[in-house]
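Format notes (please read before filing issues)

Several people have asked whether sequences and structure tokens are stored in separate files. They are not. Every record keeps both together, in the order shown below: the sequence lines, then the token lines. Line labels are part of the format and must not be stripped during preprocessing.
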Amino acid sequence: MIDGKPEVVVDRKKSLDEIATNMLNKKDSSRFWREVRRAHTQGIKLFILCECGGKVKTINDVVLWHSKYSSVTGRRLINEMIRCEMAYGVVWRFCDKRSTGRRIVEILTENG
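Then the structure lines:
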């Protein structure tokens, strides 16, 4: 913590498929969850910014998502994302690739 405020970290993900792999794939998920727990334990406010663009503007839109590469459904992914948010305070944000830099600055400005 700096001056009583939590430090803020923005973790950028290129797609919902990357998030699904990070959260649900047995090979990758232990590293992801370890990093989430470590941030929470150290008082770091973790934002995950997904550059998925398109129709996904909020976490609620994830339910309609379908993976092109796996059998993961939007319903399964949103359930894990909400669990992560509730248990560890992770904040999910969404944007298109062109606005990533601006969104990172906004997040850091509003929360820093």
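For reference, the curators noted about this record: The chain has four helices and three strands. The CA atoms of residues 38 and 50 lie 20 Å apart.
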